[in-house]
Automatic annotation (TrEMBL):
GO molecular function: nucleic acid binding; RNA-DNA hybrid ribonuclease activity
Protein name: RNase H type-1 domain-containing protein
PANTHER family: BNAC02G40300D PROTEIN, POLYNUCLEOTIDYL TRANSFERASE, RIBONUCLEASE H-LIKE SUPERFAMILY PROTEIN
Chain ranges of the RNase H type-1 domain: 26-144
Source organism (scientific name): Sesamum radiatum
Length: 169
């Protein structure tokens, strides 16, 4: 079941008990030929449960890169078999397209359709827009990638201070 959650969240908040929160983001590298995708997963007490950092070839718009990051976030949650999930991203137009029930003929349409087809595998999930300042850990993971990396619990040292700052707020 998907809950429609178009509300903007101004600061990172932990998910309710028994839920996990998955933040995703992308970034472009100076070369302009590659993109970074970052995903971070946190539990109800703010602890990092998992993360992903991936570099991919650039393929079009920033919204397309953000859609690929959202898809990676959904796939990571499915691989871990998490059932109660809140996804957060900082691209308002993408979140709107994911939550929209109307046909999407934009470049991200096929990806949003893929994401929708995966929703049935969760007991409950939602997508929320968050301000970029509240998506700092996912953004830092996207920027720090030097290949395809994934880990559990401990985020790379370059972003660990951001996780601590989020928990402290």
């Amino acid at each position: 079941m998907v809950r429609d959650s178009p509300v903007s969240v101004s600061r990172w908040l932990p998910p309710p008990l028994d839920y996990i929160k998955v933040n995703f983001d992308d970034t472009s590298f100076r070369s302009g030929q590659e993109l970074g995708i970052g995903v971070v997963v946190c539990g109800a007490s703010g602890e990092c449960l998992d993360w992903l950092s991936k570099r991919i070839d650039r393929m079009g718009s920033g919204e397309l890169a953000e859609a690929l990051a959202a898809c990676e976030a959904v796939l990571l949650a499915l691989r871990k078999n998490w059932q109660l999930v809140i996804f957060e991203g900082d691209c308002a137009t993408l979140i709107h397209k994911i939550l929209s029930l109307s046909a999407n003929y934009s470049v991200v349409g096929p990806i949003t359709l893929d994401i929708w087809s995966l929703f049935t595998r969760f007991r409950e999930c939602s997508f929320q827009f968050v301000k970029r300042s509240r998506n700092a850990v996912a953004h830092a993971l996207a920027k720090s990638t030097c290949g395809s990396l994934e880990g559990e619990s401990v985020v790379p040292p370059t972003v660990s201070s951001l996780v601590i700052a989020d928990i402290a707020q």
